[in-house]
Design brief:
Blueprint lengths: L1 E2 L3 E5 L2 E4 L5 H12 L5 E4 L11 E4 L3 H11 L4 E4 L6 E3 L17 E3 L3 H6 L8 E8 L3 H11 L4 E6 L11 E8 L4 E8 H16 L1
Parallel strand pairs: 1-4, 4-5, 6-9, 9-10
Antiparallel strand pairs: 2-3, 7-8, 10-11, 11-12
Helix pairs in contact: 1-5
Bound molecules: cytidine-5'-triphosphate.
């Protein structure tokens, strides 16, 4: 399970990041563990805590999250809820950059962890679940991610709605399946959403 944001450093005191509390990912990890899954949670920086029965690996950058994910395989199920930065700074300054009138940052693409794991047969877990956080055209973009990233399921959530947004304890999501079937999990706590999702995972695996 990946969760939370990643940080990509510009210099020792500055970084680029994504908005993400990590709450939904942590709740899914708890639900998995409660149901007996041996669970590894690879988390970017968050303010959250997790029970000791979950193997927590703390990371900062997308590259660290990628390496930790590789080390955590094989797995039966992989769920990618992290808000991974799509780009990193090409050259991170060792020293604090002094203020200037203008500054340009050269960015390069980070590895897409979900895409990589999902498209390498030797690594691919039986069930690969991605997330799609969108502000508009939710289902259109979520289906695109489902097929382009070769996922089995995509969990789509509308992050333009503050009541189910990043810091909320509540969520409302759609699960999109490969056969175009779609299931909506109505407004409820992130913890209840997670329990329902894990029930679906258990049914799928059995
Ligand atoms: N993801 C990942 N590694 C990345 C980027 C994304 O593993 N470098 C995963 C996320 O954890 C999520 C899914 O891919 O499960 C979709 O992430 P999202 O940020 O919504 O999509 P992007 O592919 O980055 O596309 P865009 O930013 O253009 O919407």
């Amino acid at each position: 399970m990946t969760a939370g944001p990643t940080k990509e450093y510009i210099d020792p005191v500055r970084y680029i990041s994504n908005k993400s509390s990590g709450k939904q990912g942590y709740e899914i990890a708890k639900s998995l563990s409660k149901k007996g899954f041996e669970t590894t949670l690879i988390s970017g920086p968050t303010n959250l805590e997790i029970n000791n029965d979950i193997n927590l690996i703390k990371v900062e950058t997308a590259e660290e999250m990628f390496q930790s994910t590789l080390k955590s395989l094989p797995a039966d199920v992989a769920i990618f809820s992290a808000a991974v930065c799509d780009y990193k700074v090409k050259v991170t300054s060792r020293e604090k950059i002094k203020k200037q009138d203008e500054i340009s940052l050269e960015l390069e693409k980070n590895v897409d962890i979900l895409d990589y794991i999902s498209n390498h047969n030797s690594l691919r877990p039986e069930l690969v679940v991605g997330f799609a956080a969108e502000t508009n055209d939710l289902e259109k973009y979520a289906y695109k991610k489902l097929s382009e990233k070769n996922c089995d399921w995509i969990i789509a959530n509308d992050v333009s709605n503050e009541s189910i947004g990043f810091d909320s304890d509540f969520n409302e999501v759609s699960i999109l399946y490969k056969d175009k079937k779609i299931e909506r999990l109505k407004y409820k706590s992130k913890s209840e959403i997670s329990d329902e999702l894990v029930e679906k995972i258990i049914n799928h695996l059995s």
